[in-house]
Write a structure and sequence with these properties.
This protein is of the alpha+beta class. The protein folds into 2 domains: 152 residues, no CATH class; 76 residues, no CATH class. It contains 6 helices and 10 strands, in the order E-E-E-E-H-E-E-E-E-H-E-E-H-H-H-H. Strands 1, 4, 5, 6, 9 and 10 form a 6-stranded mixed β-sheet that branches. It has a 4-stranded antiparallel β-sheet with strand order 2-3-8-7, covered by helices on one side. Helix 3 crosses helix 6. The protein is elongated. The chain starts with a strand and ends with a helix. 28% of the residues are buried. The C terminus is likely disordered.
């Protein structure tokens, strides 16, 4: 799924807030862990390699801190140095100096009370390695866009993936396998046969739908909704 903007969350990783007594500035800090499995999404768990953020940090790309992935609630930026990102043995440490705004003060209070203790981040995958036996994908290189504090619910819970993949599953199309093949630099003969099978399956689906329309049979509501989900899944995958 390289080239797609996505979000990722980890369980058991907490953020903290603290006040600098000398300056009076408020901060929040969290960790994006290396070598830990993410919460499930699209039927797989993801692992952040220690090399994942190397290029983002080396290139000095701008990364913003947000409240719950909301770009209308910006908390800081690496460009203004109000957000700092630092590699550690455990993971990427994200520290943000909060602005003196109502929403930032609210966030500080919520985190200080322990109401929300998780964080997430948005990224584009540039290089990854699949292990289908373990249903994992290791992110080797990503373009980091934003880190989010105050995330009350994990990104991409298992129930969400079921909604987007059920149309393909009904037609016996393995979305995960297809994604893995499309992200390879070189395809094997087996990969080509898999793609040909997907094309044939979709072709049969189109022919069946068109035949029904030619006979004047209006598609049932349930079929229309399934088709919409199939199209949406194809665009997202």
């Amino acid at each position: 799924m390289e080239g797609k903007n996505r979000k990722l969350s980890f369980g058991g990783v907490e953020i903290r807030s603290f006040l600098d007594d000398d300056s009076g500035k408020k901060y929040v800090e969290g960790l994006i862990p290396y070598d830990s499995e993410s919460l499930p999404m699209w039927g797989m768990k993801e692992i952040i390699s220690r090399t994942a953020f190397k290029n983002t940090l080396a290139n000095g790309d701008e990364v913003r801190a947000l409240w719950n992935h909301d770009y209308t609630h910006v908390l800081g930026s690496t460009r203004s140095t109000t957000l700092t990102l630092k590699n550690s043995d455990a993971g990427l440490v994200c520290r943000c100096e909060l602005p003196n705004t109502t929403y930032a003060n609210d966030l500080y209070e919520i985190i200080s009370r322990g109401d929300v203790t998780t964080m997430s981040f948005g990224f584009t995958a540039r290089k990854c390695v699949y292990d289908f036996d373990k249903d994992t994908r290791t992110l080797k290189d990503v373009e980091l866009h934003e880190v989010s504090f105050g995330v009350p619910f994990p990104a991409y819970p298992e129930t969400t993936s079921e909604v987007y993949t059920r149309g393909f599953s009904k037609n016996k199309i393995d979305v995960l396998a297809l994604n893995g093949i499309l992200e390879k630099e070189e395809m094997t003969d087996g990969d080509r046969r898999t793609i040909e099978s997907v094309i044939n399956t979709l072709g049969t689906l189109i022919e069946t739908r068109e035949a029904g329309q030619e006979e004047g049979a209006a598609p049932e509501k349930a079929d229309t909704e399934t088709l919409e989900l199939e199209i949406e899944a194809a665009l997202i995958a």
